[in-house]
């Protein structure tokens, strides 16, 4: 039986500034990755988003990023492994505190933006992230780009890893995501995005920008909550997958 977790990055509002349609999207996803204050989010947003996710019985994960509010954590930054360990420990620990206070616990961790992409190609950076996650809770699942160094690093420190694929991002021949600096990084056509998702989930294959078929493992599928059409897109993705007999469920 085909099965996949449907995750969404959210909790990215800050102060009076609001991003995304988080509370509606919670009705259609099975897990969420919540910003922890470095690239986006703040304590009040963290609190109310964890609370809302628990109420919907959606799995909650931490989404630690680089300390870069102005750049939304999408700008690369020189970072030593020890620094990566510290910022991940700090952010995941903060969100875990809210989860504990609300009577629940975190299920997973997924690095954000530039930190995610840097770690995908850098084993030492991924290992530092994985060690921080392990030192908080060995039961947490580490999400990482399918086929990346993050998956290997998680396994090397004894963590369970979940291979992640993306609905609205294009891929390179090596299985990496196309850099956002390129004009073809995002898939703007919802039909093309749906077709990409179906092929990744049902066949384990994604077509790169050069036309090459690349093998991918799809344990969890990411929907970006900051996209303007995110709510309609997640509704359609879920309906299309369920129509194909795919079970949508959080990772256990």
How would you portray this structure in words?
This protein has 252 residues and is α/β, with parallel strands linked by helices. It has helices spanning 22-25, 43-55, 81-101, 113-121, 123-136, 149-156, 190-203, 230-243, and strands at 3-10, 31-35, 59-63, 108-110, 141-145, 160-166, 205-207, 213-215, 220-224, 247-248. The strands form two sheets. It has a seven-stranded parallel barrel with strand order 1-2-3-4-5-6-9, surrounded by six helices. The mean pLDDT is 95.
SSE string, helix = H, strand = E? Answer: EHEHEHEHHEHEHEEEHE
Annotation field: number of helices: 8
Q: Which bin fits the share of residues in helices?
A: 25-40%
> What's the shape?
globular
The helix-and-strand class reads: alpha/beta
Termini separation comes to 16 Å
Largest sheet: 7 strands, parallel, barrel
Number of strands: 10
Strand content: 15-25%
The side-by-side strand order for the widest beta sheet comes to 1-2-3-4-5-6-9
Calculate the mean pLDDT score and round it: 95
- In the predicted model, the low-confidence regions spanning at least 5 consecutive residues are none
The rounded Rg comes to 17 Å
